[in-house]
Write a structure and sequence with these properties.
alpha/beta, Rossmann fold, Arc Repressor Mutant, subunit A, six-stranded mixed β-sheet, two-stranded antiparallel sheet, 15 helices, 56% helix, 9% strand, elongated
């Protein structure tokens, strides 16, 4: 009985311990749950704090944006006020000058007609763009007219032609009228003035000839302008005057494809390019001439007056739009038959290397192609490989020189990239069935119709 009672007591004690242990476990679980709840609450507070920080940053950024916008509006308002004041002052000045004209200060019918234009050109506010034109003997009329007309249309509202936003002056070495290559004269002109008065000095060249007195005076003037830091612009063969003045060392210059060979042969230390309309090299700008002169003028107008004025000029001149300097020059008629752009690009390179022939590997490297791909596409497009095409191009160029120039056969062979006179004569005889001297004496020995050397490869291709 005593053992049973003791055993019952132990069982009861064990049950009490189990119950106490269960209570501790439950309490521990409660603490764990409470701790998890606190952790979750803390995470929620951290997330809320992050959200508030982000919101604050957004508000700060928005406030900064509003402040910047307000500053911009204030600056714009100040600009408009200043512009209005300028216009009021300008109107007052013009009214005063008009009153002076009405009261009769100038005399004579011519002065009454010319006075408003002269006064307008010399208004109290300096024009945004000032250009001086140096017109060389027998200058080309088209690039000159295109350039100055683009300035004229940008200088005033509509086509009223007042020199308000732009100003230009025509100069020759002696101040006499300038005779263009087509026989038209430009007047009035004036002698060379201080080049520092202009933003740009534009040289309009013409028919190539040996430099005369007028050219030497112009070259001296260009050197003086370069020493004063005036930006020089060479248009058409005006580029040659810049080179002769010694202001193009170490620079590239843009020239028409038609004059590329002549310039390259006369100035071997200059790198002429004929794959674009004009080239901006900082304080030297060069232009191929022709209608591209209007694009260059519009480029300068946009730089000084804004795009709207440049577009206005070109639109009135019936241009489709402004062509960038990198725009390719219109190519000879040989290109009308060639749709492959790689072949067109290769021919353009060959035209500029008539005196210095390229290997097929060099040509392929210049146009970014492999030798095999270039040869395959030449044959598919023209029926001959690039080496044969280049040789024929050089020979036909030599043939043209034989008939239309007085150069010696040795000089022509060298200009066409042949090693010597015998080498040139041998290839000419093989291609045309007669020696260079025979072809020069009797042009009818060649059955093909002779055309300009850059319009060569238009006959049959076999």
């Amino acid at each position: 009985m005593l053992l049973v009672a003791r055993r019952s007591s132990l069982v009861a004690r064990r049950s009490s311990l189990v119950a106490r242990r269960s209570s501790l476990v439950a309490r521990r679980s409660s603490l764990v749950a409470r701790r998890s709840s606190l952790v979750a609450r803390r995470s929620s507070l951290v997330a809320r704090r992050s959200s508030l920080v982000a919101r604050r940053s957004s508000l700060v950024a928005r406030r900064s944006s509003l402040v910047a916008r307000r500053s911009s509006l204030v600056a714009r308002r100040s600009s408009l006020v200043a512009r209005r004041s300028s216009l009021v002052a300008r109107r007052s000045s013009l009214s005063g000058r008009y009153a002076m004209l009405v009261t009769g200060s100038p005399s004579g019918p011519c002065s009454m007609v010319q006075a408003p234009i002269a006064d307008t050109a010399q208004s109290s506010s300096a024009p945004a763009l000032s250009v001086g034109f140096v017109l060389l003997p027998r200058f080309t009329l088209l690039p000159f007219a295109a350039f100055v007309d683009c300035l004229r249309l940008a200088a005033d509202e509509g086509d009223r032609s007042r020199q308000l936003h732009c100003r230009w002056r025509f100069m020759t070495h002696d101040g006499n009228a300038a005779l263009s290559s087509c026989g038209a004269e430009i007047t009035p002109c004036e002698p060379f003035v201080d080049p520092g008065e202009f933003d740009y000095l534009v040289v309009i060249g013409g028919v190539l000839h040996d430099p005369g007195v007028a050219d030497r005076a112009a070259i001296d003037y260009l050197r003086m302008a370069a020493s004063k830091g005036v930006t020089l612009v060479g248009v058409c063969t005006g580029v040659l005057s810049l080179i002769q003045a010694g202001v193009m060392q170490g620079r590239r210059c843009c020239i028409s494809w038609y004059h590329h060979g002549d310039l390259a042969s006369r100035f071997r230390d200059i790198e002429p390019v004929a794959d674009r309309l004009y080239l901006d090299d900082g304080d030297r700008l060069t232009c191929a001439g022709g209608s591209a002169a209007a694009d260059l003028a519009a480029y300068l107008v946009e730089r000084h007056l804004g795009r709207a004025w440049a577009r206005k000029s070109l639109a009135i001149m019936l241009y489709d739009g402004h062509r960038a300097g990198e725009h390719g020059q219109p190519q000879p008629v040989v290109f009308d038959r060639i749709s492959d752009r790689l072949v067109r690009r290769a021919i353009r390179v060959l035209e500029q290397q008539l005196g210095e022939p390229l290997s097929v590997d060099q040509l392929a490297s210049r146009v970014g192609s492999s030798r095999r791909a270039l040869e395959r596409r030449f044959r598919a497009t023209l029926g001959v490989g690039p080496q044969r095409f280049q040789r024929d191009l050089r020979l036909r160029y030599g043939l043209w020189l034989l008939h239309y120039t007085e150069r010696s056969i040795t000089e022509i062979g060298e200009a066409c990239g042949f090693a010597d006179t015998a080498h040139f004569s041998r290839h000419v005889r093989a291609s045309f069935g007669a020696s260079p001297s025979q072809l020069r004496r009797d042009p009818e020995l060649v059955q093909d119709r002779l055309v300009d050397p850059y319009f060569l490869y238009v006959g049959s291709i076999t």
